[in-house]
Structure formats: structure tokens, C-alpha cells
Specification:
It comes from Chitinophaga japonensis (Flexibacter japonensis). The chain has 228 residues and is of the alpha/beta class. It contains nine helices and nine strands. The strands form two sheets. It has a six-stranded mixed sheet with strand order 5-6-7-3-8-9, with helices on both faces. The chain binds adenosine-5'-triphosphate.
Length: 228
């Protein structure tokens, strides 16, 4: 069984070939990193599998079936910074998010607890640190209790404390059995939090598989040399 399976996905924006024939599989329970430098096609790939963008070529399946609305409801996403209200509390912001996403309100105290924000749930969003704001964004993606989370560069723009908090949260979520797919341009991040990785360069898949196997491969060592 695979959570997500890509077959030969290609996408072009005018003259720019953003993705060329990308194929890989995301196993259940993995923290799956999509690793690549800026412009390598990570966001485009996540856009396609979340139905924000259409691939020009290729197909993908979710939970071993053609993608359908019913299956998409089992996936929580954090693709861009959510618009939280600065003068509302964390709890009130999640009430708004639950209403917009048509997710059950009874999930709110559960996701605040998972994100480690229960003690500060009645503080206004504007008083939150960067790490707490991002943990709230992940809490919002967890409304509805999806089994899979897709996060685009979840530690981007955070301070060191925030980066550590978000990575810890990702690992805790993985321990509860969730599958997490995250884009990152940081090898260090992938090594710290991911069990599996797909490496993209200029829209092409270089390598994919378990992190310890991929990063130990000779061809990866060559790729990550001083010229890359
Ligand atoms: P980043 O971390 O900078 O977002 P990325 O790995 O997520 O990089 P993409 O954003 O998917 O990469 O971009 C892949 C390529 O497609 C880049 O060359 C980018 O400039 C180009 N691109 C992305 N979106 C568009 C668009 N809407 N129109 C034209 N070109 C685009």
C-alpha cells in the first residue's frame, strides 16, 4: 500500500520545464522529504498532488486509488502561511478555520494539545512567537484528523527556537502514525526528521528511498559535492 504514488509527472510553465517525468512512492507512516534547492520543483509537485495545479503529463494515486474528493479529505495541508487574525486568540482562530474548512469544532482542543499550545490557547495570536504561530498553522492543518499531512517548507522563515519546535512537532506526529510529506531545501532538516526522501534537481528526480540508504549512496555523495 502507498499513500501517494507518482508516475511520470511533468509540468511546464511556458518555456520553463518545472517537472520532468517524476515518479516515486510514499510509504504509509513515513516522514517523506522532498528535498531540492529553490526552483527544483518542490512546490509545483505539492501543488499537483493537492489539486491546486494540473500536471501536463503523468498520473498519481492516493491510497492506491485515483485521486478523489473523498480521499483528499484524509489529507491536511499547509502550503502557504494561513491568514490568522492577530487580535483573536489561538482558539478563536481555530474556530474560524474549522468553520471555513467545515471541520468539527470538537477537534480544536485536541489539535491545540497535539501542537503543545493548550496553555496559551486563550492568548492573542499577535503575542505568539514565530514557532508558536507555525505550530498553530500545523494545528489548523490537523483539523478533521487527517492521516496524512503535506507541509511546504514548514520551517522557512522561523528563528532557531521555532525551527526546533516545528521539527519536534513533526516527529511527534509521525510517532502517532501520521504520514507526513514535507518539502525542504535543507539536507540537515531531512536528515533530522525524515525517514524517506526524494531528491529533485531542476525538476528531475535524482534519487529516492529511505534516507539512510539514499544519503549513503555513492552517486548522492558525488551529487552533493562542492559543485552542487
Ligand atoms: P522554491 O523553494 O523557490 O519555491 P521549488 O523547488 O518549490 O522552489 P517551484 O516553485 O516548483 O520550485 O518552481 C519550479 C520552477 O518553475 C522554477 O524555475 C520556477 O521559477 C518556475 N515556476 C514556478 N511557478 C511558476 C509560475 N506560476 N509561472 C512561471 N514559472 C513558475
Amino acid at each position: 500500500m502507498s499513500i501517494l504514488s507518482l508516475h511520470n509527472i511533468s509540468k511546464r510553465y511556458g518555456a520553463i520545464q518545472a517537472l520532468s517525468g517524476v515518479s516515486f512512492e510514499v510509504p504509509p507512516g513515513s516522514v517523506f522529504g522532498i528535498l531540492g534547492p529553490n526552483g527544483s520543483g518542490k512546490t509545483t509537485l505539492l501543488g499537483i498532488v493537492t489539486d491546486v495545479l494540473k500536471a501536463d503529463e503523468g498520473t498519481y494515486s492516493l491510497f492506491d486509488a485515483p485521486p478523489a474528493g473523498r480521499l483528499r479529505r484524509q489529507i491536511g495541508t499547509l502550503l502557504e502561511t494561513p491568514n490568522f487574525y492577530h487580535y483573536l486568540t489561538a482558539c478563536q482562530n481555530l474556530q474560524v478555520a474549522a468553520a471555513i474548512k467545515q471541520k468539527p469544532e470538537q477537534d480544536i482542543s485536541r489539535v491545540l494539545e497535539i501542537a503543545g499550545l493548550t496553555a496559551r490557547q486563550h492568548s492573542r495570536f499577535k503575542t505568539y512567537s514565530l514557532g508558536m504561530k507555525q505550530r498553530l498553522a500545523i494545528a489548523s492543518a490537523l483539523l478533521g484528523d487527517p492521516g496524512v499531512l503535506i507541509l511546504d517548507e514548514p520551517t522557512n522563515g522561523l528563528d532557531p527556537a521555532g525551527i526546533a519546535e516545528v521539527r519536534e512537532l513533526v516527529l511527534r506526529l509521525a510517532e502517532t502514525g501520521k504520514t507526513i510529506i514535507l518539502a525542504s531545501h535543507l539536507l540537515d532538516e531531512v536528515e533530522k526528521v525524515c525517514s524517506h526522501v526524494a531528491i529533485l534537481q531542476k525538476g528531475k528526480l535524482l534519487l529516492s528511498g529511505p534516507v539512510n540508504e539514499v544519503l549513503a549512496r555513492e552517486d548522492y555523495v558525488e551529487l552533493s559535492g562542492p559543485d552542487n
